[in-house]
């Protein structure tokens, strides 16, 4: 097992550091003048007027991330927890596209939602890391995220590859659903996707996450805030943190803080705030609400961002398209969780009570 980890102490750290490669693989051959998905040529999604993503855990956060590219472009889309799909019983017909997002392709809750969608006559797609997995076989089509094997129970590189693959898939769906009109500022998005591996490489060598983890190691609870694509990243940051540190962590849409969670905020609750470039002034105002109650605010944003000046600490991300900035922030949060768990001497690759693939409902 040690051999497989190479120079790293844990698979999780190795997999975090593999992201420049896994993301280059995720986009390879899929970007030229536009979005070019071999599996889904132009017209592949003609007739689709509603998109539902179903997934669990980290994959659900990636699904939320992908759904935003569709709603922001004016397409009816939502991400649903696969284990709530039956109970919420959303409308499904033959003009509905149901996208199952599952890195393993074997998660029982997600398979059950996928089967329900098939029974209701939806068109189905699986976005997965595993060729020939059950979800890939049972859906009409599949899109591989090409992340390579992920051993750590905590999903890291598969999240970023899912989010990128889903953003590209969303771009193709938008072109068909809106009859030719694609995503806005497509050139900016594609240039950012092309730069992403290099941006992450740089971030990994310069990250202060280990120092920040040390500074806030004695906190009572850890909060994560974000808006737009920053919101699923905040949820993912909190999930990763609780999963491997066993400390209490919660993610919120930044505007929700004042609707309840603010009652929990004290000088012992650091607030990690993700800035993606979408309504950042509002997010900053929300972070300041926490700062006023004494909470340390840690801004995850580019160096010259206004939040970097007012926050107590700063985790830097390169400037990029707002639709991909969240993925850079997520890498900083992955490192933060990793280093916090290491300080606590947790079994990082195999957290208690958890399995890599959950094959029971
Ligand atoms: C997160 O770190 C977990 N490994 C977990 O939430 C996972 O994302 C979830 O169980 C779904 O797995 P899947 O992508 O294989 O369907």
Automatic annotation (TrEMBL):
Please tell me one Gene Ontology term that the record gives under cellular component. cytoplasm
Q: Which UniProt keywords apply?
A: Aminotransferase, Cytoplasm, Glutamine amidotransferase, Repeat, Transferase
Q: Which residues form a coiled coil?
A: none
Domain SIS positions: 41-179, 212-351
User: Its catalytic activity?
Assistant: D-fructose 6-phosphate + L-glutamine = D-glucosamine 6-phosphate + L-glutamate
Its Enzyme Commission number? 2.6.1.16
Q: What is this protein called?
A: Glutamine--fructose-6-phosphate aminotransferase [isomerizing]
Query: What's the gene?
Result: glmS
